[in-house]
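USER:
Try writing one entry.

ASSISTANT:
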Amino acid sequence: MASVAYWPATFWRCILSAEGQVNLYGPGGSPDHIFQIPQAGVFGPGSAGYGYVNRIRAVDDGLYVCGDHRQFYRFNWDGQNLSTGRWVDMAASMRQAPVSDDPPDDDEAFDAWLDAQDGSVEFRDLGGSAEHDLYAVGDETWHFDGHQWQRLTLPSDEALNAIEVQDARHVALVGHNGTVLLGNAREGFRDVSGVDDNQNFTGVVFFEQQVWLASTLSLLVYDLHKPDAKIERYHTDLAVDRVDTHQLQAMGGVLWSFGYKDLAYLDTRTPEAHWVRVHHPDNPRVDQPL
């Protein structure tokens, strides 16, 4: 499994494999259908040398997938019968040419084959405010305005891992070496990176007027309304603080922190906001620091 998502427009759950299989199913398991994205993947019978897909996300009323070699797909269906759905390529000329499965015997051709392998651009995440305002981020960052894709020039050349879109004007991009970029495709992005160590940010959300950042080392926040704001480490009110944070999700006044070994959420729906840890039955209880 490469990625999961919830599609609010349909109430469906979405599961994506790196090979391009997508399982869409509704509450209670109905409807339920598995699709294969044409040409995606590496080892499947329909793969065409474009590589793995990495992320599935709902944007507005649409459902999208991105991946290696600048792959980008949209799910089309008749709005009534799930089985009529199909995944269509919307990367157009943005998508890189596929590489051959087997290296050639000729030395010069082999060098060219290696260069083609090394030149693959990986999209790790996608997001947007509408079908005419879509982003794909990773080794490069691209924006779709409803008519065409355009590569964005950013104030940092670090690879990006995640994107969060609050609305058309407020977009956050995060990635390697503590990179945090805020802005949008129309007005540009500003670099607010400022952590002291080389953290790798893996998740980001807008929540309670702050940008929350998940890294390989800690949970951090950036206050959007402070004129002299800087990225700061965040500590919960749990008896034993979070062990790790890998991904973040915010909805309905609740901020979720998903780690490899730890799961917790911040509930702000009551006047006394507090953190709650959820113990996974298959993992050791996080009652003491590891």
